[in-house]
Every structure is written in structure tokens, then in C-alpha cells.
Specification:
It holds the Pfam family Aldedh. Keywords: Oxidoreductase. InterPro entries: Ald_DH/histidinol_DH, Ald_DH_C, Ald_DH_CS_GLU, Ald_DH_N, Aldehyde_DH_dom, Aldehyde_DH_NAD(P). This is Aldehyde dehydrogenase. This protein is α/β, with parallel strands linked by helices. The protein has two domains: 244 residues, Aldehyde Dehydrogenase, Chain A, domain 1, CATH 3.40.605; 190 residues, Aldehyde Dehydrogenase, Chain A, domain 2 (3-Layer(aba) Sandwich). A seven-stranded mixed β-sheet has the order 13-14-15-12-11-17-18, sandwiched between helices. Helix 7 links the parallel strand 9 and strand 10. The radius of gyration is 26 Å and the shape is globular. The termini are far apart. The mean pLDDT is 97. Bound molecules: nicotinamide-adenine-dinucleotide.
């Protein structure tokens, strides 16, 4: 039985009931925002935007900085909500949701002034004596942020905070699987002093998300599945509206012959299974060089078998957060078994009422198995032996996804060489998912894994329009190119081309 149900309420609107993934007890109900309510919220956000944008970026940052104190003070309540909706262990509620959120808030509020205030940019060559260039970072207006359920607080907070700092008003549509965890973002920001209409939450499922995308907004920032990302891109294309898409992944981990095998095995298990394996950029498939494969596999199997899971919040692993994931993970593991893989640890949903899946190790995986090609999003370490690092890179790139990847080796220079050949948005040495928690890293997916960046200066400025302003230095009566054209006009242009660009020495001076 599904844990999210749509029911008709007495007043004719749709309501969603939500059951716990731990024991399927009813934990909540939400009213689904109708298209008309979405439009009303957008209108309020539109009306509030000018005042919010009129505040200096330092003032906006000051307000948002207060949210760190609110977040620190309210962390237990936020973690209670996240745990109620996802069942993830307390450690993960803290490590995945709270710590990076504190860091994102602190980082972006410290960074915003530098990255968003008007800047002067030096012009090159012959333009320098004639003009001055300034860049304004203008807010786009109203931004819609649509988020998934796997990191329901942090994945909502990060884009919302950036969009607000840039002077936009924001409508957040959190996942219907974890609505209250997302709602906390809006609550703490309002408590810190962000006006109500400047940041709002809209509850509901895909219908509400689609209504938000169709509404009169100026950018969509989406994190979620590839399928939904495509629909959003198509809707935005119709209206020529910008969007950022952070989508799924099938991140490869490469274990080189010179890897520290203790670290590689511990990393393989943890990075495949923390957050119950529901992490978009971590480890979804593992390529280990044959010469060290036996020992690596022994260590991985041993560690995976030691993982504790089940209700209580103090085990190593919680349940899958959504019943649909149980079906996906089961299907992938069974498909691997049917095609000849060896499942040496786990391999099935755990007994009981909750959405638990046994920590699983799949050996002898190949690229004709879903577990190596489709996003599994569950606690599965799928291992494939490769001849050498060359083959590992080739197989890592043999994917329609390109979110992130990892290389385990004792040699950082080799890690960089391999990384340069990986067709992924980012690469991490001797670790993986941590890259999302590095706000200065321009994190974003390639291929089907996304469009644009969610971190780095590009991401923050992605919530603005960079408006170049060209200032006239000399204010002469007319430019030499303006009417009327004469022989002198063409002689001047000819001189620039022939004596300037046509001369190697001067060309360097002009560039
Ligand atoms: P999803 O696409 O089903 O839903 C994501 C959000 O979109 C939800 O809020 C949902 O209600 C909304 N939505 C659904 N249909 C919509 C529509 N037609 N128009 C607008 N909004 C719509 O994804 P999910 O199952 O919630 O999340 C899991 C996926 O997210 C995985 O594929 C995972 O890899 C990906 N993910 C990616 C990142 C990243 O940073 N790249 C981070 C977390 C999760």
C-alpha cells in the first residue's frame, strides 16, 4: 500500500495523506494547492518582489544570516520532522540536512555581497581607452523551486536561500513525500525576518508542481527525476524562461590498483548506502581493478554485512523513504540475479511493515543489468571487475547519466588525470557525495543529469540577469563610425584592421 494517498476532502479539493515509511502509521495530511491558489501565491510574490529587491544585498544577507541562529535553535524540531517523514537515522538527519544547511546559509550570506553587487570589469585592447564596463546583477523576479524527498530540507534550503539573496521572491514546492520537512525552510526564514510574501510554500504533488511551472514565474529551479526534468524543460522552452535542472545520476566509483583498500571498501559501502542509498551524487556502481578486486570485495562484503538497520533512529540505516523505491530496488536486484550476478549480501526487502531493504552487495555486475545502467537509489553496492583503469574509465563513461564520479587512489595526480577524462559534472578523490556540500564548487550534471549549476558563483548569479552597462568615457559629439560615412571612416577602420590586428605585436596589445 502506498504511503502517499490522494483523497477527496469534503470541500471538493484534493488532500494527500502521508504514512510513515518506518511502520506505515498515518503521520500527516496536506491540502493540495490548486492551480488558482498557485496563481494567487505567485501574484503575492510578484507584488512583494520590488520591495525585497530594493533592499541592499547586504541587508538581505543580514536577514538571512539570522536564519542560522533560528536553524541552530530549531534543529531538534526540524530533525524530528525529517525523521517522521523519512525514518532516516538521527545521525543522517544531522549530517545530511542540518550541518550542510547551516554551512550553506553562512556561506551564501557571506558571499552574496561580493558576487551580487555591481562590478566594474576591465575592458580589453582598443575598447579600454574608449568605454567603461559595469555589470549589474538584476533579480529575475519570482522563482519557483521544486524539490525531491531524499534530502528534503537541505535540497530546498540551498536554492531558496540563493534565490532570495539575489533579490527574487520564491515559491517552494517540496515533495509530497516530505512536505513538512520542506516547509521548515520557509518557517525558519520567516522567523528570521523574511516577509511572508517573499518566501512561500505550496504543498501538493506533480499537479501542483506543474501548475507552478505554468504560472507567471521568471525561473524554475528543479531538483528531481530526469522524467520530470524533461517535462519542466519543455514547459519552460515554450515560454523561453530559464531553468536549472539537477536530475538523477548513476555515479561510478573507480578503485585503482594503488587504492587504500580499507578506505575504498569503507567508502564503497558507506557511499552506496548512507541515506539508504537515496543520494543522487554518490556511488551507484563500482569498478575495481582486477589485481585488487578479491581483497576489495572481501572487505566490502564484510562491512556491508555489519550494517544495522530497522526502526528506532539509532541504527546505521533507515528505510527507503517512498514505497515506489522498494519496487525499483527489488526489480534492479532481481534483474541482476536473473542475468548472472552473484548477490553475496542481502538482496531483498526486509521482513516487516516498514520500507526497509537489506544492505545488498551485488558482484559480477555487467552493463546489461539495470543495476549498472539505471538509477537504483537504494542500499546496493554493485561491483564489476575491470582489467585496468583504462577499462574503468571507458565503462564509467558508458552511461546516459553524468552527475558525479569518484576515483580511489593514493596518487592525487592520477585522480586528476582520470577525472579529466570522466564525462561527469564533478569528480571526487577518495570520497563522493561530499561535493554537494562544497558551495564554492560549481556542482551540476552533464548528459541526462541536468542543466546548469546549483552551487558556485554561477549558481548564485543564475538567479539574476547579468546586465552589462557600457559607459561612455569621453562624451564627444559623435562616434567616428556614426553618419555620415566618408572615405575617412573606411580609412580609420582599415587602419585598425591592417595596422592593429594585422600586426603581430600590436595584436597582442589589442587583445
Ligand atoms: P520527481 O521528479 O518525481 O519529483 C520531484 C519534485 O517534482 C516533487 O516535488 C514532485 O512533486 C514534483 N513534480 C512531479 N511531477 C511534476 C511536474 N510534472 N511538474 C512539476 N513538478 C513535478 O523526483 P523524486 O522522486 O521526488 O526525487 C528523486 C529523484 O531526484 C532522483 O532521480 C534523484 O536522483 C533526483 N535528485 C537529484 C539531485 C541532484 O542534485 N542532482 C538531488 C536529489 C535528488
Amino acid at each position: 500500500m502506498a504511503i502517499v494517498h490522494s483523497i477527496a476532502a469534503d470541500d471538493g479539493r484534493r488532500r494527500l495523506t502521508l504514512d510513515s515509511p518506518v511502520d506505515r502509521r498515518r503521520i500527516d495530511e496536506i491540502d493540495v494547492a490548486t492551480a488558482a491558489e498557485v496563481d494567487e501565491a505567485v501574484a503575492r510574490a510578484r507584488a512583494a518582489q520590488a520591495n525585497w529587491a530594493a533592499r541592499d544585498v547586504a541587508e538581505r544577507a543580514e536577514i538571512l544570516r539570522r536564519a542560522v541562529d533560528v536553524l541552530v535553535a530549531r534543529r531538534d524540531e526540524i530533525m524530528d520532522t525529517v525523521q517522521a517523514e523519512t525514518g532516516k537515522p538521527r545521525v543522517e538527519a544531522m549530517a545530511v540536512e542540518i550541518v550542510p544547511s547551516c554551512d550553506f546559509l553562512s556561506y551564501w550570506t557571506g558571499r552574496a555581497r561580493r558576487d551580487l553587487r555591481p562590478e566594474r570589469r576591465k575592458l580589453h585592447g582598443y575598447l579600454r581607452p574608449l568605454k567603461k564596463l559595469y555589470i549589474n546583477y538584476q533579480p529575475l523576479g519570482v522563482v519557483g523551486v521544486i524539490t525531491p524527498w531524499n534530502g528534503p530540507f537541505v535540497l530546498s534550503l540551498n536554492p531558496v536561500v540563493q534565490a532570495l539573496l539575489a533579490g527574487n521572491t520564491v515559491l517552494l514546492k517540496p515533495s509530497e513525500v516530505t512536505p513538512r520537512s520542506g516547509e521548515w525552510v520557509v518557517r525558519i526564514l520567516r522567523e528570521a525576518g523574511v516577509p511572508d510574501d517573499v518566501v512561500q510554500v505550496l504543498h501538493g504533488d506533480g499537479e501542483t508542481g506543474a501548475a507552478l511551472v505554468a504560472a507567471d514565474i521568471d525561473k524554475v529551479c528543479f531538483t528531481g527525476s530526469v522524467g520530470t526534468g524533461r517535462k519542466i524543460a519543455a514547459a519552460c522552452a515554450e515560454r523561453l524562461r530559464p531553468y536549472t535542472l539537477e536530475l538523477g545520476g548513476k555515479d561510478a566509483m573507480i578503485v585503482c590498483a594503488d587504492a587504500d583498500l580499507e578506505r575504498a571498501a569503507a567508502g564503497a559501502v558507506y557511499l552506496s548506502m548512507f541515506n539508504t542509498g537515496q543520494v543522487c551524487m554518490s556511488v551507484e556502481r563500482i569498478y575495481v581493478v582486477d589485481s585488487v578486486a578479491d581483497e576489495f570485495i572481501r572487505l566490502v562484503s564484510q562491512r556491508a554485512a555489519e550494517i544495522t538497520y530497522g526502526p528506532g533512529g539509532d541504527t546505521d540505516m533507515g528505510p527507503l523513504f517512498w514505497d515506489r523505491q522498494v519496487d525499483v530496488v527489488t526489480r534492479h536486484v532481481n534483474d541482476a540475479k536473473d542475468k548472472g550476478a552473484d548477490v553475496v549480501v542481502g538482496g531483498a526487502p526486509a521482513a516487516g511493515n516498514g520500507l526497509y531493504f537489506q544492505p545488498t552487495v551485488v558482484l559480477d555486475a555487467t552493463h546489461d543489468m539495470d543495476v549498472m545502467t539505471e538509477e537504483t537509489f537504494g542500499p546496493v553496492a554493485a561491483v564489476m571487475r575491470v582489467r585496468d583503469e583504462e577499462e574503468a574509465v571507458r565503462l564509467a563513461n558508458d552511461s546516459r547519466y553524468g552527475l558525479s564520479g569518484s576515483v580511489f587512489t593514493k596518487d592525487p595526480a592520477k585522480a586528476r588525470r582520470i577525472a579529466a577524462r570522466m564525462a561527469t559534472g564533478s569528480v571526487v578523490h577518495n570520497d563522493a557525495a561530499v561535493i554537494y556540500g562544497v558551495p564554492e564548487a560549481p556542482f551540476g550534471g552533464r548528459k541526462s543529469s541536468g542543466v546548469g549549476h546549483v552551487n558556485g558563483t554561477d549558481a548564485l548569479r543564475g538567479f539574476t540577469h547579468a546586465q552589462p552597462i557600457l559607459i561612455d568615457r569621453w562624451q564627444t559629439k559623435a562616434e567616428s563610425l556614426w553618419y555620415p560615412y566618408s572615405d575617412k571612416t573606411i580609412r580609420n577602420l582599415e587602419a585598425v584592421v591592417r595596422h592593429g590586428f594585422g600586426n603581430r605585436f600590436l595584436r597582442r596589445f589589442l587583445s
